[in-house]
Amino acid sequence: MEYSEELVRELKRKAIQVRANILEMIPPGKVGHLGGSTSIADVMAALYFHTMRINKNNPKDPGRDRLIMSKGHAVLVQYACLAELGYFDRSELGKVKTFAGILQGHPDMDKTPGIEAVTGSLGQGLSVSLGVALGLRLDKSDSRVYAILGDGELAEGQIWEAAMAAAVYKASNLTAVIDWNGVQATSTTAEIFPIANLVEKWRAFGWNVIEIDGHDMIQVLLALDAAKAYTQGPTAILAHTIKGKCFPFAEGKAKYHNAAMNEEEYTIAWQCIENMKREVEA
Amino acid sequence: MRTSDSLRKTYGETLVELGEKNTDIVMLEADLGNSTMSSLFGNVYPERYFQMGIAEQNMASVAAGLSLTGKIPFINSFAVFASGRAYDQIRSSITIANLNVKICGSSAGLSDFGDGKTHQSIDDIALMQVLPHMTVLSPCDAVETEQMVKAMVETKGPMYIRINRNDLPVVTDPNSEYHIGKMTRVVEGSDVVVFATGIMVQQSMQAAKLLLEEGISVRVVNVSTIKPLDTEALLGFCEGVKAVVTAEEHSIIGGLGSTVAGALSKTRLPLDLIGVDDRYGTSAENYTILLKHYGLESEDVASRIRAILTV
Ligand SMILES: Cc1ncc(C[n+]2csc(CCOP(=O)(O)OP(=O)(O)O)c2C)c(N)n1
After folding, report:
1. B149 vs B10: CA distance, rounded Å
2. What residue ranges do the domains of chain B occupy?
3. If 0-12 CB within 10 Å is exposed, 13-18 middle and 19+ buried, where does residue A226 land?
């Protein structure tokens, strides 16, 4: 598969805007899941602005592809995409996690257009995604389901129940993207709960496995298209990423899993955005 | 149509019947299909029957996903596992989102007598009824099971049905109108009212018969919808009586009795809660031994009624 330079550049622009929207949601002093939202931002940009078939004018369009954030805490990145696409007014970004707003602390399908399920209790989203995939198949729909998982989340036993079941049912309309950033809530996965042979594990569970650099837009696009083309069963995209990507003070640090930036960090973060904007146009 | 007095067989047969016209009905099973009788559905509609293996948590969340595509999933297991093993999945994936998932807790209460405490659910009503959006149903016989399953398919929202493993005599009127939320007087009386659910309906009816010979007139009400509880009807059935008794095959903590007690707190009527005292089940060679051991036989109900009338 070949991707035009213009497409790749446009998706990189979108990824920058997604990160900018994340910053907008958590000004200095406001706590939010910066790390896990920015690590998956490039994959999310590719999905929402290219790969997925969506209808922003009808969020419930039966023919749409579905994206379920199994790592629901990183919903800021999904809000960032949905706002950019116009699912709700941009002014909502400033009201995330407030009583008056429609953007809850974790994904809430009743409150927010474009959110497909309730997640937040880790480990359940892959199962829910599988259920949607099986339902779509019964309806003879060609819509696809994307589940976004954290690598720390993989310690939940239910993930592996779902992995086995998806293979049993050969759910080729299901793609799981594992945000393999190597950091979880309180430290690195290496320190908290190292899971050995992750690639081999998914393969042994019966999945088509693709390992990529989750910040390389072309690799991301190639993987998503390969998953679409694979018809024998579900695909797991293991995306090597950096938690807090693009913001040096936060990169690779558990501290920014769910934290507030100070004024200085926030200024630096916006400078990073401006620098990236310049680079992408160069 | 119902072919026996088995609640679980009737459950399975009714879904087979409904599944013919309503192709949105899907069934999920965790390797207990011959007990829950979900296998009857699987035999007829294999493409709508999902064997999920012994993985109840995944089964509950997959059902949530299926309902997001407009399906009406029924998930099946023993009541202990259906409610307890998948509790957070029911809470997070299903009830918070208010999804149209139906949960069948089979072999409920002490009815799986031989298997003992790990398999006997004395806490499933408590777990399920505390969840916002959840409806909790507890049929007393096969007739009511059939009516209930039909209503479950017709009514949107998460629901839990607790089903006895053993055949029970039919005590409800097949021609009576059924709707979720309705409580029905099955014996008229004026001294005491017993609010009973599940197998305790028939036990209470027998107790009423015993007591009538002694000149004590007992009203028995079948509360087959534990949540939402029709408090207006509840208060109505308390009119004129000297005392209130509840009867359930479940812990007296968090079950029907606790809920009725809360609803009647302003009436100042004497109240006694019959059920399993804060303890687990145990194995026995038959159901009757267990009902006797836990004080759930008709004689037990009768003596508790006598006692509350003499205080
Ligand atoms: C069942 C459950 N346990 C604990 C948590 C609290 N929690 C939220 S995020 C998180 C760490 C997640 O790490 P990972 O999956 O690697 O996500 P990422 O690093 O991509 O943000 C934890 C423990 C939760 N939300 N759900």
Report:
1. 9
2. 7-162, 184-309
3. middle
Tell me whether residue B56 is one of the annotated catalytic residues.
yes
Radius of gyration of chain B (CA): 19
> Do residues A244 and A179 lie in contact, with contact meaning Cβ atoms separated by under 8 Å?
no
CATH C-level class of B184-309: alpha beta
One digit per residue, the tens of pLDDT, for chain A of length 282 reads 799 999 999 999 999 999 999 999 999 999 999 999 999 999 999 999 999 999 999 999 999 999 999 999 999 999 999 999 999 999 999 999 999 999 999 999 999 999 999 999 999 999 999 999 999 999 999 999 999 999 999 999 999 999 999 999 999 999 999 999 999 999 999 999 999 999 999 999 999 999 999 999 999 999 999 999 999 999 999 999 999 999 999 999 999 999 999 999 999 999 999 999 999 998
Count of domains for chain A:
1
Quote the CA–CA distance of B93 and B63 in Å, as a whole number.
9
Q: How far is CA A237 from the centre of its chain?
A: 12
* CATH class for the domain made up of B7-162: alpha beta
pTM, rounded to two decimals? 0.95
Q: How far apart are CA A244 and CA A236, in angstroms?
A: 22
Check for a shared fold between B7-162 and B184-309.
yes
Is any atom of ligand 1 closer than 6 Å to the C-beta of A184?
A: yes
Please give the full DSSP string across A213-254, using - where no structure is assigned.
ETT-HHHHHHHHHHHHH--SS-EEEEEE--TTTT-TTTTT-G
Enumerate residues 115 to 144 of chain A having a beta carbon within 8 A of any beta carbon in chain B: 116-121, 124-125, 127-136, 138-139
Structural domain boundaries enclosing A93: 5-281
DSSP letter string over A1-22? ----HHHHHHHHHHHHHHHHHH
Q: Give the CATH number of the domain where residue A149 resides.
A: 3.40.50.970
Using a CB-CB cut-off of 8 Å, the residues of chain B touching A165 are 52-53, 55, 58, 62
